[in-house]
């Protein structure tokens, strides 16, 4: 890869992306999938050169229906027949979607892949349901895949009037790879129906994503818990399916894109009060009640509220953590990045208004509010309004992940003032600025002086006696300082946090 990097450095020096060293881009590309790297090829000449020099792309075997011209079979054979020894591992991405007229070509390509399955590390197949089912069975059933770590199968369902899509069951055979896929850990199945038999190749899976665009026959079991003995995380997205067996307490479960009834049935089948992790997007009132009751027996509860920005949407996360049993329940409110935030804020307020959620918040000993992005949602006001302006937490942690949101004064003397009088039990306030070049205590003296005056003004004389104000630039240290006084943490370096004397001269 060294010669490729040298070639990139010599070209496209006028590109804004060239401000970052190629080595930095390579580190970024380490976190991306093949599909992401292929998308980056169209960004600019410089990015294209950097992405195509990355090891993942160099060993990628990518064929898509929109490629013109399509590579010939001889070209594909030449590419697969690497002269290197040992031969490099392969990352295969074959995406033909609804290109039904490409069935003969698809058969030949899959036959080539099957010959080299012993070298394939990750495999993605996006095929039309009407032909893909038989193609996968014919070419891959019983083929050993000793190095396969990730498998994605997509039977893409298009519009409601596509008869082949909506009438062909997207099944795969239990004999896929037989039991010769010992390293397979990550599975993504889109519109795939699993049979009642055990799939030997899947028994080592740690993460399973089941996505559906269409309803399935009511008598078809999509997920049987007993067939996934090592599963740690289960994502289910789309219309409700028929589940057989209850998930063990260990897998984390994520539920999204379901209507109210589907959501509640899926929750009942897939989770128990002892499930370690459960996340639901846009939960109904009954779902919110069920999830909150999971923590009825919790002795110590932490609450984290944060805003998230994803490629096409924004989210508010309301997360409760059982500190002793390491159980977490996450309520997600989601809205499109182009939509008005008001409906999402109203939905978040509806979640907070559920009586069981209200009671759970009152039991939280620590509340963490993360102002990572400009969410246009005053989270603290929503929380306190739902609790009749009173919270019983003993510690409050405010974290700032960007400079724009890092203006602490906006929360103490600005338009969305943080009212400490609604926190009568508060004994510890932790401020964390973890964005790049966040100021140290010495550099932020003027801001902290104003902050000190504001805090002293907002606290009663009784609260001031034992009150702690902590400042840190380390997000992990902030969480630990909020959960217990920092001096009680034997493994927390004193250099990672600073205790601010509330009685010092504010200047």
Automatic annotation (TrEMBL):
InterPro entries: F-box-like_dom_sf, F-box_dom. It comes from the Eukaryota. This is F-box domain-containing protein. CDD domains: F-box_SF. Pfam families: F-box-like. Residues 14-60 form the F-box domain.
């Amino acid at each position: 890869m060294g010669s490729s990097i040298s070639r990139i450095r010599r070209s496209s020096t006028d590109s804004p992306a060239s401000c970052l060293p190629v080595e930095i881009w390579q580190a970024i590309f380490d976190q991306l999938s093949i599909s992401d790297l292929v998308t980056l090829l169209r960004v600019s000449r410089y990015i294209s050169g950097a992405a195509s020099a990355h090891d993942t792309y160099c060993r990628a075997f990518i064929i898509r229906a929109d490629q013109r011209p399509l590579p010939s079979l001889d070209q594909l054979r030449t590419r697969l027949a690497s002269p290197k020894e040992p031969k490099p591992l392969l990352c295969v991405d074959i995406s033909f979607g609804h290109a039904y007229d490409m069935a003969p070509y698809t058969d030949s390509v899959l036959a080539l892949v099957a010959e080299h399955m012993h070298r394939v590390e990750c495999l993605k197949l996006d095929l039309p349901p009407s032909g893909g089912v038989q193609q996968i069975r014919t070419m891959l059933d019983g083929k050993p895949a000793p190095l396969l770590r990730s498998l994605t199968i997509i039977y893409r369902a298009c519009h409601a009037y596509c008869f082949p899509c909506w009438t062909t069951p997207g099944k795969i055979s239990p004999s896929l790879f037989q039991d010769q896929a010992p390293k397979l850990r990550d599975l993504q199945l889109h519109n795939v129906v699993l049979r009642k038999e055990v799939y030997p190749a899947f028994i080592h899976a740690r993460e399973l994503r089941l996505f559906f665009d269409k309803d399935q026959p009511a008598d078809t079991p999509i997920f049987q818990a007993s067939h996934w003995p090592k599963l740690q995380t289960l994502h289910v997205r789309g219309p409700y399916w028929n589940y057989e067996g209850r998930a063990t307490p260990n897998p984390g479960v994520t539920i999204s894109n379901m209507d109210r009834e589907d959501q509640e049935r899926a929750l009942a089948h897939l989770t128990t009060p002892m499930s370690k992790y459960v996340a639901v997007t846009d939960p109904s009132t009954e779902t919110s009640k069920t999830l909150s009751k999971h923590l009825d027996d919790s002795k110590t509860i932490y609450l984290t509220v944060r805003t998230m920005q994803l490629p096409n949407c924004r989210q508010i996360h309301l997360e409760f953590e059982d500190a002793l049993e390491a159980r977490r329940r996450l309520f997600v409110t989601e809205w499109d990045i182009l939509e008005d935030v008001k409906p999402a804020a109203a939905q978040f307020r509806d979640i907070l208004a559920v009586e069981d959620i209200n009671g759970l918040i009152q039991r939280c000993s620590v509340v963490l509010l993360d102002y990572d992005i400009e969410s246009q949602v005053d989270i603290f006001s929503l929380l306190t309004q739902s609790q009749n302006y009173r919270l019983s937490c003993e510690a409050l942690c405010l974290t700032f992940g960007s400079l724009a949101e890092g203006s602490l004064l906006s929360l103490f003397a600005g338009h969305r003032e943080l009212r400490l009088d609604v926190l009568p039990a508060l004994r510890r306030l932790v401020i964390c600025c973890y964005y790049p070049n966040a100021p140290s205590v010495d550099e932020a003296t003027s801001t902290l002086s104003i902050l000190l005056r504001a805090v002293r003004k907002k606290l009663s004389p009784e609260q001031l006696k034992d009150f702690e104000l902590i400042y840190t630039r380390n997000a992990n240290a902030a969480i630990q300082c909020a959960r217990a006084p920092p001096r009680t943490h034997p493994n927390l370096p004193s250099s990672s946090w600073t205790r601010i004397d509330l009685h010092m001269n504010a200047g």
